[in-house]
Design brief:
Blueprint: E1 4-10, H1 14-24, E2 30-37, H2 44-57, E3 65-67, H3 81-84, H4 106-116, E4 122-126, H5 131-139, E5 147-153, H6 169-173, H7 175-182, E6 188-191, H8 193-196, E7 200-201, H9 203-211, H10 215-235, E8 240-241, H11 245-252, E9 257-262, E10 264-266, E11 277-279, E12 291-297, H12 299-310
Parallel strand pairs: 1-2, 1-4, 2-3, 4-5, 5-6, 6-12
Antiparallel strand pairs: 7-8, 9-12, 10-11
Helix pairs in contact: 1-2, 1-10, 1-11, 4-5, 5-7, 9-10
Bound molecules: beta-D-ribofuranose and calcium ion.
The site of beta-D-ribofuranose has 15 residues, from α1 and α6.
């Protein structure tokens, strides 16, 4: 079978970086048509640069990288330097990229890709706030019926929130964009905190990355080490959740994950619960299902896959 064509939309972010590395390490399953950067964990000037750093780390400097929206649809940008460091990729010592940023705006690249490729042959993987995707849908509503699937990291039900008591970061930063995506009618698969908080980089798992003894393995261990300090202090957990790689792992080994097809509605009105993913897990409303909302992960299988694949780069 030929590899699935994907656009990765991202705000790197150490965990975004690992998600991208996993995609690059899996060319039999995934063909990365382009990387579109969005403002999120850190401002756009860092996220687009970080995306290029990751391409070069993976030995894929020919991958087109596009800069997208530098702020959410209708509110000021909220960032997360307190988790990811000033650059978003703090931890490893990686060189500045030499590959050029594409001139085209990320939103136009997304629109053109979906218009030019045969219907439902390209999927998109949002790993950050949904601003670029929503902007593309607003500018070109015709692409909605052409998207094969959106597979994204964002939201929470049982774990509720990480940026506020009620909301997960990616959705909270641009709830209006999330609302557009969740109402788009596009096939949607969601990796919420309920899954990613089970994908913890324990000391043993971090050691396994480092033992690869390659540029990619050591950089991954350094990135997850950095990320970990914050999460261990905050949650008292045995390691940092590796959020975004759950998306690319799902595309490679979907059987590692399970969830329910349910209705998920985004809170855009209440300041108290802004950005909450109101997930009808128990199917107590008549609202139609619009997303496959994951809940379980085979964490050992996930880390085995990740380590083995990163070893190929
Ligand atoms: C999400 O927010 C970011 O900090 C991570 O990169 C991930 O995409 C987790 O809430
Ligand atoms: Ca991210």
């Amino acid at each position: 079978m030929s590899p699935r064509k994907v656009i990765i939309d991202t705000d790197p972010g150490q965990d975004d970086a690992v998600a991208i590395l996993l995609a690059f390490a899996s060319p039999d399953e995934l063909e990365v048509l382009g990387i579109t950067a969005v403002a999120g964990n850190v401002p756009l000037a860092f996220t687009e640069k970080n995306a290029r750093i990751v391409c070069e780390l993976a030995g894929k400097p020919d991958t087109p990288v596009f800069a997208g929206c530098d702020h959410p649809l209708s509110r000021p940008l909220v960032t997360a330097e307190y988790v990811h460091g000033k650059t978003g990729l703090d931890g490893p010592n990686l060189p500045d990229p030499t590959m050029a940023l594409q001139e085209k705006h990320a939103v136009d690249f997304i629109i053109e890709t979906f218009r030019n490729k045969p219907e439902k042959t390209v999927s998109i993987c949002p790993l950050g706030p949904l601003t670029n995707i929503a902007s593309a849908l607003l500018k070109a509503p015709d692409i909605a019926s052409r998207v094969e699937e959106i597979i994204m990291m964002g939201g929470a039900y049982f774990e509720v929130g990480n940026i506020t008591p009620a909301a997960e970061f990616n959705i909270y930063v641009d709830p209006e964009a999330a609302d557009i995506v969740f109402n788009s009618g596009i096939k949607l698969t969601v990796m919420p905190l309920d899954v990613t908080h089970k994908a913890l980089v324990t000391a043993d798992r971090n050691d396994a990355f480092r033992r690869l003894d390659t540029k990619v393995g050591i950089a991954t261990a350094d990135m997850t080490d950095f990320f970990e300090r914050f999460d261990k202090e905050k949650y008292g957990s045995s390691g940092a959740p590796l959020h975004d790689p759950c998306v690319t792992a799902y595309l490679i080994r979907p059987e590692l994950f399970s969830g329910r097809k349910i209705n998920v509605t985004i809170e855009t009105g209440s300041e108290l619960t802004m950005g909450m993913t109101v997930a009808d897990w128990w199917r107590v409303t008549e609202r139609p299902a619009n997303a496959t909302f994951m809940n379980e992960i085979d964490a050992d299988g996930f880390f085995a896959l990740l380590t083995e694949r990163l070893g190929r780069l």
